[in-house]
Design a protein that fits this description.
By secondary structure, the protein is mainly alpha-helical. Helix content is 73%, strand content 1%. A two-stranded antiparallel ribbon has the order 1-2. The two termini are 30 Å apart.
């Protein structure tokens, strides 16, 4: 079979069936972000009822991030080894149970425990999305398929407030977590029908054993820095925008449901715009120009604490997430082409796990700065770290010696 880069050539005539699996993974990422965003959307209500501080809230989020950091490369390896069908059924069942269990929590320890289990299960989401797009679509459509698979995350963030807040206002915030369990069961039922040919081809090759990322490779660190540092805005914008809008610019809890749709809408549009742009203009191993453009465009978020305008704050949140979607698409496309095809899910897991490692460190710090009202520090960090990531990627992505290409196994 002929190949294009590391990807086998797929028939140029791709019918609607080749998109079905990516759409199913879009719904999976939608479920994933809906489940994780319930806590953020309801954070003003939950913090008031439980007495948790913003710093404690940040530490609960950090528990998720630590488990998510571990879960992403672990699930990436598992999905490459056992296959998408069984792997995703197990992963979504785990995190659905964890999300539902939030309904019975009342203090820091309980929230941290179920949040960690949620993060562990959700670690399969984006490795699965990357693997699905690469397996089921022709090379010239794979980044757009990746955008479809990942776009459910931003849709979940958009719709979480619209869906969750009415339930919480009418039945209490605990009922919102019970509702998430029903959504998980619905997705599991759908996946049993979709995860098979002709919608999702069986992989031609699987690793002989489970593999683990090799931190002694430059391509590993190039992937890590471009994705984790480029997409850093996900943490401060998604986790703290409800608190910032409510406490700093004085948006009421009732109006949050509408305003909180705007930042993830930028993320959603960013996936599709930059997915198309990457397929069209960045069909090279080292898209330096596109990464530099994204880094420059990430800077305006530093202006958020210098305006009291709700519209201006929302516009900057929107723009920051639009650029974040670009970093994710370009970093994943570039990273996937640096590795063998049978390790595609592991690439996605490595990238998402690296982002989570950064979030585990940064989000508690941001929570402390939020309690101290150090808003300038929060948004300067958010705006400048992507440039650091791109600078590191430019140096790391140069050709590495062949002797470092081996991958350790577990």
């Amino acid at each position: 079979m002929s190949t294009v880069g590391n990807a086998p050539a797929v028939s140029a005539v791709a019918n609607w069936r080749c998109w079905v699996a990516s759409v199913a993974m879009m719904l999976c990422s939608w479920l994933s972000y809906t489940d994780r965003q319930i806590l953020a959307v309801l954070s003003p209500m939950i913090l008031r009822d439980t007495g948790l501080s913003a710093q404690s809230y940040g530490e609960v989020v950090s528990a998720f991030s630590i488990a998510y950091m571990i879960g992403n490369p672990l699930w990436g390896s598992i999905l490459d080894y056992v296959g998408m069908r069984i792997g995703m059924l197990v992963a979504v069942a785990v995190w659905t149970a964890a999300s539902t269990a939030h309904a019975w929590m009342a203090g820091f320890a309980g929230f941290a425990a179920v949040r960690a289990l949620l993060g562990l299960g959700e670690g399969a989401t984006f490795p699965g999305g990357l693997r699905t797009a690469m397996d089921s679509l022709p090379p010239d459509r794979q980044t757009r398929g990746l955008a479809v698979s990942y776009s459910g995350g931003s849709m979940g963030a958009i719709l979480a407030s619209v869906v969750v807040l009415p339930i919480a206002f009418r039945f209490g915030w605990r009922a919102a977590f019970l509702f998430s369990g029903l959504l998980g069961l619905a997705w599991l039922t759908m996946w049993t029908a979709v995860a098979r040919p002709p919608y999702l081809p069986r992989p031609e090759r699987r690793p002989r054993r489970m593999e683990w990322p090799n931190p002694f490779e430059r391509r590993f660190w190039a992937l890590v820095t471009s994705y984790a540092l480029g997409a850093i805005a996900i943490g401060p914008v998604l986790y703290f925008s409800p608190l910032y809008l409510n406490r700093v610019v004085h948006v009421s809890e009732g109006n949050l449901r509408w305003f909180l749709t705007i930042p993830p809408l930028g993320w959603e549009l960013g996936y599709f715009f930059w997915g198309w742009a990457a397929d069209r203009f960045a069909n090279v191993k080292r898209p330096v120009g596109m990464f530099l453009l994204l880094a420059i465009c990430a800077v305006p978020v530093v202006g958020i604490p210098y305006t009291a305008s709700v519209a201006a704050v929302l516009a900057l949140f929107f723009w920051s997430m639009f650029i974040t979607g670009g970093f994710q698409m370009v970093a994943l496309r570039t990273g996937a082409r640096a590795y063998p095809r049978e390790r595609t899910a592991l690439v996605g897991g490595t990238a998402s796990g690296a982002w989570s490692a950064v979030a585990a460190v940064v989000v508690p710090l941001l929570g402390r700065w939020f309690d101290q009202q150090r808003f300038e520090a929060i948004f300067w960090l958010t705006g400048l770290v992507p440039m650091v990531g791109v600078t590191l990627w430019i140096g790391l992505s140069r050709q590495e010696p062949d002797r470092l290409k081996a991958c350790p196994t577990i």
